[in-house]
């Protein structure tokens, strides 16, 4: 018996030794990094103590990051096929609503990443996702397919109703909006012919209003049109240098405003007139403000209120714009190329990739950008909100950014910014431009690797030499 115990003890001791590492190697090989890919949709918690970033990426991943450190809190990886593609992401409270592969509607609890519920959608091409409700409160989530509209309860995902959309074989239904007053609006287009506006009742899915609006100048809704305020559709018309307004509730024809009549001067022929609206937040009506992009780097903040369309502020040298809300304050953030005091003498250094982008319209000399906040309802610039940062690569530009806003003790607006660049770098910044963390999400595209022995330091070589001598004795 004693001999058996002795052998067991020796066996356990040998197993323990086989799992040991030398003291100088501790911490060198015990790391693991997780990536999520390029952000398609993102939402940052607002408020002074906010710590979460919810994102959906091109790798079919829904994830949460700690916005203070950049660490992954949780992530869910879907199929690496079109069935797992994340088509939409919307936030309401602590829940994230997603559509994947046009077939699965899901609700996630964002604190721990648990799945609240999942609903299977009817077949068809996914077009849009929106909250819907009544009494200025979101109670449902509406899903628009190319030929069908369905309404689901936010609490459990159960289907309230599903209705076929008339004339779906000839009309391209692309926009979805709810003013939270018991109705859902669906907007469809026959290019260069007319708009079809359908109003569905939230209660039973019946069509309470249907109207056709002639729009021979309109080719697409995406990028060209957006919904603001209490159901007002605004569209840009570049060939006519005009903005068209139509009410989703009652309008049977558009109201046209020329840019010249609005006091917006054009230095050259207009080639684009895009509309950028604030995302729906699940509480109250949409903002009455929106951006008109009238050139690659020129944006005008507009407001439509009480039937009057007004330009609030004209911005030049713009890279990106966005909206953000904290408390009862809504701001617009404008990222611009910073040129003052930033001109470098001599030729630009050659980009490591061999690219020459100095002639591109988006090129920013010095590669330094600034972000400023403005009140959305007036265009007034908020003092002490400037944030500046510089990108290392000359031919890489920011292509999206998101804000984490909060109210300070003096009721002023503070913020942090998440910036994503074309090469999938994520920068999280705080004023006046200090980088809190950085993630290289381009590493999510790595498909193979090779182990390479790096040269040893003198101390490491001496240490390995000592072990080699002992092994040879």
From TrEMBL:
EMC1 first beta-propeller domain boundaries: 20-441
Keyword Phosphoprotein: no
Compartments it resides in: Endoplasmic reticulum membrane
Gene Ontology biological process terms from the UniProt entry: protein folding in endoplasmic reticulum
Alphabetized Gene3D superfamilies for the sequence: YVTN repeat-like/Quinoprotein amine dehydrogenase (2.130.10.10)
Topology term for the membrane: Single-pass type I membrane protein
Chief subcellular location: endoplasmic reticulum
GO CC terms in record: EMC complex
Subunit structure: Component of the ER membrane protein complex (EMC).
Protein name: ER membrane protein complex subunit 1
Originating species: Xenopus laevis
């Amino acid at each position: 018996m004693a001999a058996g115990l002795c052998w067991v003890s020796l066996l356990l001791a040998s197993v323990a030794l086989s799992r040991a590492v030398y003291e100088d190697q501790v911490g060198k090989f015990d790391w693991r990094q997780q990536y999520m890919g390029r952000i398609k949709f993102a939402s940052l918690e607002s408020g002074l103590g906010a710590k979460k970033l919810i994102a959906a990426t091109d790798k079919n991943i829904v994830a949460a990051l700690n916005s203070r450190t950049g660490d992954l809190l949780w992530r869910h990886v879907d199929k690496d096929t079109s069935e797992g593609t994340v088509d939409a992401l919307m936030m309401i409270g602590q829940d994230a609503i997603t559509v994947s592969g046009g077939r699965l509607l899901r609700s996630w609890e964002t604190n721990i990443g648990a799945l609240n519920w999942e609903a299977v959608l009817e077949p068809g091409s996914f077009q849009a996702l929106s909250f819907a409700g009544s009494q200025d409160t979101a109670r449902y989530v509406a899903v628009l397919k190319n030929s069908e509209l369905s309404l689901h309860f936010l609490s459990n995902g159960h289907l309230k109703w599903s209705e076929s959309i008339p004339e779906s074989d000839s009309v391209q239904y692309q926009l979805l909006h709810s003013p939270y007053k018991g109705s859902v609006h669906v907007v469809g287009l026959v290019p260069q012919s007319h708009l079809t506006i359908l109003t569905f009742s939230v209660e039973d899915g019946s069509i309470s209003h249907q109207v056709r609006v002639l729009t021979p100048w309109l080719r697409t809704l995406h990028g060209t049109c957006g919904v603001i305020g209490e159901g007002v559709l605004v569209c840009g018309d570049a060939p006519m240098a005009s903005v068209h307004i139509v009410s989703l509730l009652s309008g049977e024809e558009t109201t046209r405003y020329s840019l010249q009549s609005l006091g917006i001067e054009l230095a050259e022929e207009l080639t684009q007139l895009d509309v950028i609206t604030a995302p729906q937040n699940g509480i109250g009506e949409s903002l009455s403000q929106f951006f008109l992009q009238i050139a690659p780097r020129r944006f005008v903040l507009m407001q439509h209120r009480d039937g009057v369309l007004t330009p609030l502020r004209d911005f030049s040298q713009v890279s990106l714009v966005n909206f953000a809300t904290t408390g009862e304050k809504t701001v617009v953030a404008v990222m611009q190329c910073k040129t003052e005091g930033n001109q470098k003498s001599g030729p630009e250094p050659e980009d490591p990739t061999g690219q020459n982008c100095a002639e591109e319209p988006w090129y920013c000399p010095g590669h330094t950008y600034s972000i400023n906040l403005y009140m959305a309802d007036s265009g007034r610039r908020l003092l002490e909100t400037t944030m500046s940062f510089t990108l290392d690569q000359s031919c890489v530009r920011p292509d999206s950014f998101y804000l984490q806003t909060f109210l300070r003790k003096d009721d002023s607006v503070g913020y942090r910014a998440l910036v994503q660049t074309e090469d999938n770098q994520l920068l999280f910044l705080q004023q006046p431009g200090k980088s809190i963390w950085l993630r290289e999400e381009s590493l999510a595209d790595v498909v193979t690797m090779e182990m390479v022995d790096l040269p040893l330091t003198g101390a490491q070589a001496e240490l390995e030499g000592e072990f080699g001598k002992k092994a040879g004795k």
